[in-house]
Amino acid sequence: MRVQRIAVAAFIAILLLVVLAVMDRWNASMYAEKIAQIKIPPRAPASGSIATIADLPLPTEETLFGEQIPLGNWFIGQQYDREFYYNWNIASALLLWWQRSGIYFPMIEAELHKAGLPDDLKYLAVAESGLTNVKSSANANGFWQFIPQTAQRFGLRVDDLIDERLDPEKSTHAAIAYFQYMRTRLPSWPLVAAGYNMGEDNVATSMQWQHAESYWDLFVNDETMRYVFRIAAIKELMSHADRYGLYFDRLAPWRAPQVRHVTVHGPIASIADWAVEHGCLYKDIKVLNPWLVGRSIPNGTFEIALPATDNDRASIK
Fold it and tell me: How far, in Å, CA of 30 to CA of 168, rounded?
């Protein structure tokens, strides 16, 4: 009898499972039928928005340094598109460059204007360094990526305690002097930009043996072939970010801290001790005066920037 009861219970349990499975399948079928009756329009990007990289409205006309880029040439158009897509795809870097430009572009623009040079040269600094003091494997340093020999050639001090390549204003003056010199040797500003990358002598020699009259006719190393197009793409994306779905103006560009300058007569054994004596910390001095690369100040007279107010400190003390 016990065996019979177990068998009956098992049969009932199996029957219940079958009934539940049938009901579940029926409910799922009914739900799918109701969903199918709901008309859902296909998803589409909002008017003027960028859904994917394929939606980018590539420029059909572009100028750099006041010169028209011949985008109608298939090879030149492809080179420009390559740099445009690449730089659009690193939007976080572009945003940082745009924010830093709020600090440094006003000074660079003013100096370029004073020297009568093209405003677009400011984007060369972005292409070189992203407007930061970065050091390369070739020992180039600063916004304009001078190697020590070129920096010293154009009036910058570079040693173990002072590196004026890291002074944005002084290095901009040196870059302008270098641009002016190259422009006396090369017939256009795109060629000057190429010369900044591969050396003006190399550009002049390449033009001569290739019988080329412009940058757009040159065939040189891949880095320099890309370099001028990269500057042009950065210019377009930073200047017209909203056209390409990069709405940088929703954020505020960074501001330059307000500073006051004091004249210092070296040597000073400890910048940290000197900073405390002037109501600051070592961090404040190093951030506001990045060209002071050592812990001390050598012989000589120097203008040291100090924070004008507590809000302009790099430290929080």
Answer: 70
Residues 6+ apart with CB under 8 A from 216: 69, 70, 73, 76, 190
- pTM of the complete model: 0.83
Cβ atoms within 10 Å, residue 160: 9
Let me know whether 91 and 239 are in one domain: yes
Residue-range definition of the domain harbouring residue 212: 59-250
Are 126 and 160 in the same domain?
A: yes
At 53-86, the pLDDT tens digits run 888 999 999 999 999 999 999 999 999 999 999 9
**pLDDT given for residue 7 in this prediction:** 56
Cβ proximity of 291 and 166 under 8 Å: yes
Does residue 291 contact residue 170 with C-beta atoms inside 8 Å? yes
Q: Is the distance from CB of 233 to CB of 81 less than 8 angstroms?
A: no
Question: For the residues of 222-242, what is the DSSP string, one character each?
Answer: HHHHHHHHHHHHHHHHHHSGG
Question: How many domains does the chain divide into?
Answer: 2
E strand segments, 142-241:
none
Sign of CA dihedral 121, 124, 125, 126: positive
Q: Do both 203 and 116 map to the same domain?
A: yes
Name the phi and psi angles at 299, rounded to 5: -60, 145
* Same domain flag for 72 and 207: yes
Residue 191 sits in a domain whose CATH number is 1.10.530.10
pLDDT tens-digit series, residues 112-169: 999 999 999 999 999 999 999 999 999 999 999 999 999 999 999 999 999 999 999 9
What are the structure tokens assigned to 256, written together? Answer: 């330059």
Report yes or no: 266 and 300 within 8 Å, Cβ to Cβ: yes
Q: Determine, yes or no, domain membership for 94.
A: yes
98 and 239 part of one domain: yes
- pLDDT for 3-37, tens place per residue? 555 555 555 656 655 555 555 555 555 544 543 44
Q: Are 297 and 265 in contact (CB under 8 A)?
A: no
